[in-house]
């Protein structure tokens, strides 16, 4: 398994932006999918964004047009750029990696959108 460490969360006002980073302990070139999930208190963990090996991306309907997932293979890092944040985006955001050997999760980073 690959170790994943998220960073970049915090408190932001509605309409603001944050960029989350997920650094992997080894190359992510072999990861079939790199994804961001989020989990709000009392709710299930939901898929937010996904990026495949070839760069194909996919987003939850609730974040389309506001969030952008990207990967920098040279830095073993996946990013989630979040713009126009709203209170309903408040959650713990988790990084996820999937390769032929299995899946890995990060420890999560808290994002709070509040005035």
Your description of this structure?
The chain starts with a strand and ends with a strand. The mean pLDDT is 95. The protein is an all-beta fold and 115 residues long. It has strands at residues 4-7, 10-12, 18-24, 33-39, 45-52, 57-59, 67-72, 77-82, 91-99, 102-105, 109-113.
* Anisotropy-based shape: globular
Radius of gyration: 13 Å
Helical content class: under 10%
Protein structure class: mainly beta
Strand content: over 45%
Distance between the termini: 39 Å
Count of separate DSSP helical elements: 0
Number of strands: 11
Instruction: State the oligomer.
Output: single chain
Mean pLDDT: 95
**Low-pLDDT residue intervals, each spanning 5 or more residues:** none
Secondary-structure element series = EEEEEEEEEEE
Major β-sheet, in short? 7 strands, mixed
